[in-house]
Amino acid sequence: MRTVGVEEELLLVDPDTGEPRAMSAAVLARAEREGSGKDVFEKELHEQMLEFATHPQSSMESLHAEIVRCRKEAAGHAGEIGCAVAALATSPLPVSPSIGMNRRYRWMEEQYGIATREQLVMGCHVHVSVDSDEEGTGVVDRLRPWLPVLAALSANSPFWQGSDTGYHSYRSRVWQRWPSAGPTELFGSPDRYHRRVADMVATGVILDEGMVYFDARLSQRYPTVEIRVSDVCLHAETAGLIATLARGLVETAAREWRAGTEPLDPGVSLLRLSAWQAARSGLAGELLDPRTMRRTPAETVVHTLLDHVADALEAHGDLERAREGCARLLRDGNGAQVQRDLMRRTDSLRDVVTECVRHTQA
After folding, report:
1. Which strand (E) or helix (H) includes residue 159?
2. Rounded to the nearest 10 degrees, what angle do helices 147-154 and 298-315 cross at?
């Protein structure tokens, strides 16, 4: 059974005002003193962010429990120094992000300018194990048209610098400012994949392989495919759903690769349009159907994804869990819809943030 791990980035905020706070160093220091920081919590580009990584899990129940545990630990450490954590993919309130004191981050600021200074966005990355680079490349090639559906399900960033953006996932639009971000062409073999990555690094536009921000990539550190399209999810159970579907997609793609089934190839230009559509409308309107690249009601596209991965999900005992999770999101809304509902009720972005602090640990 393929293992799955999740990395989540959380926003550090003032518990009373909801304003972002640059306290990641203090939170990390406290976690280290308490003995829970090692191999769990990490610093990120901006000091208003805190990242954690779960251990690989075979059971989705265990993975969900670990996400909940890590969120609670993060909240506990933050609370001890006077701040709180919120699973928000952008800050609804205005913020001037503080870049961490790190040579790598300073290089990025000098290289990319305002794109680095404004890049206070929080994502969710899912690692799914693969047997080899050959299998991993076959998987990456076959995931491409399905990834915008995960982005729509996870969308959790409607507000930016005090305003409603009109998007469900504005984080993904900010993320596209990185020169290496987004969908990829077909690679066909691990040799071609690694050659393309080496050529990108050789340009000097990016610093190293870690800055190859493909929507799905072979991990540098682990024998996994890393899927990088999702907003950090407001609720832990949504993060678990994204991980469940990601494993289903990887297993389905691996089976297609082994069977010699050719990947769908709509081309990078259409994949970019599909990603934009998912960011714009989330689950509230239409998405591009991964098979036809034509506008289709979001609910229909979600069910198309479930049908696509049903055999793999059933083999792992996850099919009913995935169906229930998708039905819940289609009924109750993703994080972006929850945030907008809170704004309509309270007319206060401060209240949106403070309420989302509570949702983060729900």
Report:
1. strand 159-160
2. 110
Cα(245)–Cα(240) distance, rounded to whole angstroms? Answer: 9
What average pLDDT does range 77-88 have in this prediction? 97
Residue with tokens 């340009």: 203
**Alpha-carbon span 188 to 5, nearest angstrom:** 26
State the Cα–Cα distance between residues 77 and 81, nearest whole angstrom.
7
| Burial 272-302, CB ≥16 within 10 A → b, else e | eebbbbbbbbbbeebbbbbeebeebebeebb
Q: What CA–CA distance (Å, rounded) separates 122 from 178?
A: 15
- Other C-beta atoms lying within 10 Å of the C-beta of residue 205: 12
Domains of the chain, with CATH numbers?
4-355 (3.30.590.20)
The predicted model scores a pTM of 0.97
Instruction: Extract the tokens encoding 226.
Output: 């890393």
Determine the Cα–Cα distance for residues 324 and 326; give it in Å rounded to an integer. Answer: 6
Each residue of 183-213: pLDDT tens digit?
999 999 999 999 999 999 999 999 999 999 9
